[in-house]
Amino acid sequence: MATGTYLFEYRICANAGACDTAVATVYVGTAHIVRPDTYTYTGTATMGNVLDNDRLNGRRPQIGAEVTLNVPTQPANYPVLHPITGQVSVQDSTPAGIYTISYQVCRVSNGKCVSTTLTVIVPHVMAKDDANTNYINGATGAANVIDALANDQVERQRATTSNSQLAVITPATPIGGGNIAELSTATGKVNVPAGTTAGTYYIIYELSTQIGGNTFKDRATITVEVGKTPLTAANASYEILDNTLGGTTSPSIFGKVTLVG
What we know:
single chain, mainly beta
């Protein structure tokens, strides 16, 4: 059956013989599926679009051309559902908490609206993964190669040793029985002792804080890449005078190779 509005006239009669005529109106439309959404803030202001999981005729509806959003005015520091785009974002001033926004998705073709909800979770504690970007000489080691707290947050502020606590959940695994990269829970810095075998080390840590008698926690992973002792090779020129007799270059090319560190 094609989409559209159909009118059916019918007549109903009582046993006593009294009758009346009326009209039934039936609207036949295309499938419009509106689903609730939940987003968790992870540090990126724009988190997604509420229309991404909705469907109209089996595909994502186009805002403006096919649907519109009716979004009531929210408090000043609330997460924002943008009615023109459908995007969800968290403001810098939004405190940690769980927020629910009720709104409507309306069809442009017939004005019919479906009510649904958006839930935004802004964590009290947010620990994010870390990795070193600089070269680490395992032979000599290095101090403070990563600051684990630099990209973590507590109550929307940068995490520090004053507003949070660190705990190592899983320390790095030794390679060949040697030293390992270590996270200092007192400073939040990662150190690589001298004599650490080249390889990749993983440290899982937990960031926690106490707010109003409750403890909030989050975990993240630190990846530490430790390289082998680097070397440099200098260019060298040699001359063999008689190609029929051959010869041996002197001095050896190994004299042009230097170990760094």
